[in-house]
């Protein structure tokens, strides 16, 4: 299958509407969670401006473990409550961090990262993992990103057969 994702245009909210439509088309009828995460990470990494990492961490044996991603090699395991990913997982609340260097306990997997957003993946009340995006640009993420990425995570979870 060949997939073409045209560049995103318009205001940020419009771009996320386009992006989430692209995610829906990319996933299609595929139910495999790992395959869908891998394609979604690639799409986010290539479609959203100013990213240096996009990917997933999955809950395994009480901690977050690296899943499909795009970008430099990353930290493999993150304890709940530690760093931005661990806090998002522990609180089950999306974390929008304009300056990771000012975030207490930030885990620096890539020294070039300056801002981060982490969306918890919750299905049937169960924490599945997190969607994590990093940027070398301070203040890169805002409420439009939060809303758009939470919607994208919802599409992924609804379409996939979860383990």
From TrEMBL:
<protein>
    <submittedName>
        <fullName>Diguanylate cyclase</fullName>
    </submittedName>
</protein>
<dbReference type="InterPro" id="IPR000614">
    <property type="entry name" value="FRMsr_CS"/>
</dbReference>
<dbReference type="GO" id="GO:0033745">
    <property type="term" value="F:L-methionine-(R)-S-oxide reductase activity"/>
</dbReference>
<comment type="similarity">
    <text>Belongs to the free Met sulfoxide reductase family.</text>
</comment>
<dbReference type="Pfam" id="PF13185">
    <property type="entry name" value="GAF_2"/>
</dbReference>
<feature type="domain" description="GAF">
    <location>
        <begin position="32"/>
        <end position="161"/>
    </location>
</feature>
<dbReference type="InterPro" id="IPR003018">
    <property type="entry name" value="GAF"/>
</dbReference>
<dbReference type="InterPro" id="IPR051330">
    <property type="entry name" value="Phosphatase_reg/MetRdx"/>
</dbReference>
<dbReference type="InterPro" id="IPR029016">
    <property type="entry name" value="GAF-like_dom_sf"/>
</dbReference>
<dbReference type="GO" id="GO:0005829">
    <property type="term" value="C:cytosol"/>
</dbReference>
């Amino acid at each position: 299958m060949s997939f073409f994702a045209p560049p995103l245009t318009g205001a940020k909210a419009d771009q996320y509407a386009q992006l989430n439509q692209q995610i829906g088309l990319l996933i299609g009828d595929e139910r495999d969670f790992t395959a869908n995460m891998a394609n979604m990470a690639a799409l986010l990494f290539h479609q959203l401006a100013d990213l240096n990492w996009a990917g997933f961490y999955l809950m395994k044996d009480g901690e977050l473990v690296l899943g499909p991603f795009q970008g430099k090699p990353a930290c493999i395991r993150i304890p709940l409550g530690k760093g931005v990913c661990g806090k998002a997982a522990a609180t089950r609340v999306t974390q929008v961090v304009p300056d990771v260097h000012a975030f207490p306990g930030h885990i620096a997997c890539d020294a070039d990262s300056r801002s981060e957003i982490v969306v918890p993946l919750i299905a049937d009340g169960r924490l599945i993992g997190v969607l994590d995006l990093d940027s070398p640009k301070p203040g890169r993420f805002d409420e439009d990103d939060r809303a758009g990425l939470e919607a994208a995570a919802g599409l992924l979870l609804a379409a996939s057969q979860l383990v």
